[in-house]
Amino acid sequence: MTVKVRPYRRGGWEVDIVLTLDNGQTLRRRVKSPVASKSGSLRWGRERERHLIKHGPDSKPTPRPKRQRPSAPTSNTQPQGQPATEVPTLAAFAPRYIEGYARANREKPSSIDSKESILRNHLIPAFGDTRLDELVQEDVQLLKAKMSELSNKTVNNTLTVLNTLLKCAVEWDVIAEHPVKIRLLKVTQPRVVFYDFEDFERLVTAAGKHDDRALLVVLLGGEAGLRRGEIMALEWTRVDFRRRQLTIDQAEWKGHVGLPKGNKIRVIPMTSRLCAALQAHRHLRGSRVLVRDDGQTATAKVIEKWLHAAQRIASLPDKGPHTLRHSFCSHLAMRGVPARAIQELAGHVNLSTTQRYMHLSPAALDRAIRALEEPPPTPARSSNE
């Protein structure tokens, strides 16, 4: 007895059932599956095989059970006797979710843009014509399979948006219950890319030869740990030369200025050469520290342009400004700075983010091995002795 599934010539799947009856006769049935997916067609074929064994070859196929559609909840203000409101499709509900949830909760513009991109590129193409209450668990698995060439992190971001959208629909009484269970993929932390001490010094020297703004980009990222948006939004009023410290309380993303990532405001002491570079760069062309020649705000592309020019002079490969921030955290860890201090300086919301750098700390490893050389602890004495 075998059940095989193969592509049907006109689309869909063909189920090929071969079995031997009690009288020794071989029975074969080849039919187009009424189910759209391959795995569902295989399950349907096995059910059909069991039906043929039990009822014989002349019996009619067992009809495929229809997907249950829970009734849309009726509003309290809806008059009795009128039909319930039709449950919207995912494509119809998506704008309502963006406006009434993401924007209403004042999410960062970058977060809203990410949600819109995920809906546009992944969720609406996959489920746009599907009613929210018609989603089933297999749909989620098929989405994962369709995104198999993308990173686990991208898949998880997409699943998270789907999950919050469905939770929002439940909270707003659009659907009665969450139709599926979202299971995220396992994600391994990528290797942190950073400049070693020698390469970073080469980059500082090269940036100083090219332009004082390139030097500031390198030092603000590599010796203060600023993100690109924080470098762009840094204003002179946030630079305290007397106390030699920076206050990082805003960041820019595509023209939008708001709080830094994680909504964490931090104060960072300046190194001597960062303080000297800022003093040498003081200008009256605007409130921002880094501006273009015409006085306009430096965009993300301009920041990268200055950095790439310094990298080429130093004969280093082009890398983004975030590599400087990785270098900042890595250099602190390699010099034995405690994780909590690095977390505060970098503005990490979770200590687990900082822990990515701590394996580089020789001081921490040395302390761990030195602990083996200490006398063993005295065992606690029992109260019965």
Structure at a glance:
With 385 residues, this protein is mainly alpha-helical. 45% of the residues lie in helices and 10% in strands.
Describe this structure in words.
- With 385 residues, the chain is mainly alpha-helical.
- The protein has 3 domains: 54 residues; 82 residues, DNA polymerase, domain 1, CATH 1.10.150; 171 residues, Orthogonal Bundle (hpI Integrase, Chain A), CATH 1.10.443.
- Helix content is 45%, strand content 10%.
- It contains 14 helices and 8 strands.
- The strands form 3 sheets. A 3-stranded antiparallel beta sheet has the order 1-2-3, with helices on one face. Strands 4-5-8 form a 3-stranded antiparallel beta sheet.
- Helix 3 packs across helix 5 and helix 7 packs antiparallel against helix 9.
- The longest helix is centred in the middle third of the chain and has 20 residues.
- About 6% of the residues have low confidence.
Topology summary:
Elements: E1 2-7, E2 13-20, E3 26-32, H1 38-55, H2 90-103, H3 109-127, H4 137-146, H5 152-171, H6 197-210, H7 212-222, H8 228-233, E4 239-240, E5 245-248, E6 251-253, E7 256-258, E8 266-269, H9 272-281, H10 300-313, H11 322-334, H12 339-346, H13 351-358, H14 362-370
Helix pairs in contact: 2-3, 3-5, 6-7, 6-10, 7-9, 7-10, 7-11, 12-13
Instruction: State the shape.
Output: elongated
Number of strands: 8
CATH superfamily of the largest domain: Intergrase catalytic core
Strand content: 5-15%
Radius of gyration: 31 Å
Q: Taking strands numbered 1, 2, ... along the chain, how are they ordered across the largest sheet?
A: 1-2-3
The SSE string, one letter per element, is EEEHHHHHHHHEEEEEHHHHHH
Overall average residue pLDDT: 87
State the CATH class of the largest domain: Mainly Alpha
The largest β sheet comes out as: 3 strands, antiparallel
Total discrete domains: 3
- Which class of secondary structure composition applies to the elements? mainly alpha
